[in-house]
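In line with agreed milestones, the collection of sequences with tokenised folds has grown. One record among many is set out beneath this paragraph:
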Amino acid sequence: MFKPLSVFVGLRYTRAKRRNHFISFISLTSMFGVALGVAALITVLSVMNGFEKELRERILGMTSHAFITGADGTLKDWQALQDMIDGYPHLVDSAPFVEGQAMLSQGSRVRGTLVRGIDPQLEGNVSTIDDKIIQGRFDDLKPGDFGIILGKDLAIAMGVATGDKITMITPHVTPTPAGVMPRLKRLNVVGVFEIGMYEYDSALAVMNITDAAKLFRIPNKVTGLRLKLDDVYQAPRISRELLSTLPANYRAADWTYQHANFFRALKTEKTVMFVILLLIVAVAAFNIVSTLIMMVTDKQADIAILRTLGMTPRGIMTIFMVQGTMIGIFGTLIGVLGGVALALNVETLIANLEQLLGYQFLPADVYYISSLPSDLHWNDVTVIAITAFSLSLLSTLYPSWRASKIKPAEALRYD
């Protein structure tokens, strides 16, 4: 016998055919309960990671990783700033922009909007908006033509399409003999884009940077310089380090600052979902308690004999801890394998299920993300596996301690 006696007996009890089949059934239920909980946790967290990744990519397709502006919210010579930061580590590219609030009017329809002026030649370096055009062309934003590209929902709300005209009302006023009048400008709708997020599709309009600067009365200036970085997760650190190398009259911000509440809410939701689903694992793990207590009751005579032969209480505890640990190990292992396989193939499985049932779970006309994305993180798998196994091991302590306190004389009195 090449293993300690208590471990050998524990493994022998695990493999043995029991007289009480109900105990075997509870053991299998506990094992598959742990497996089901682990698989569910891995799959759900992977899907949540997939949604978060999809949303982040859509947001960062329109929002710069970071941006730099002047102390007064404008930059006069952005080319000089671009030359200053050119070649900075982790900086991929940059592009100027003009941004401001305005109102769009078409007949009796009025809608507030965020107007962004961009350089069509440089914008593709920092965003993906040129790939999201569904009507018109991105190159139609020519300086002096006062063309505008609207988000899909904004265009629908205003009742316009490519080729129509629309009136923009800026917050600046023009003094006239009749009094102060708002600044109005008729614009040509040259395109429509669809990002897939209501925040942008319903409230964003894009113009040429030269035309936008004229409308917002900052000629020869821009609002700032948008930056694209090689690692979006390091944007706060990189933007701070970059700002420290520039003169004091510049300020910077990154995408985590602009969308802090949104991603904080996603993180909180993921944490709450982890805790809720962990309760499934906890319930299954604590079923091991009932399994081992019934096993201790069934094996009282064996325990008494082992004690009379000289086995210590610690050895008795080890016997039943081995049993519970084996249930936890196999349950966790099966759950990890099943969860990883499901997480890696959930998109294909859901697509096949939709085709089989003839029903789409996430209709494209209702949900912007019509598929079920999945992004498996191995660190999540590791945390889930360790947590599930720890709960299983914790569940063995009380029954094992109770077994170690059995007195041989009392256990054998009626046998």
In short: The chain has two domains: 5-57+262-412, 66-256. The radius of gyration is 33 Å.
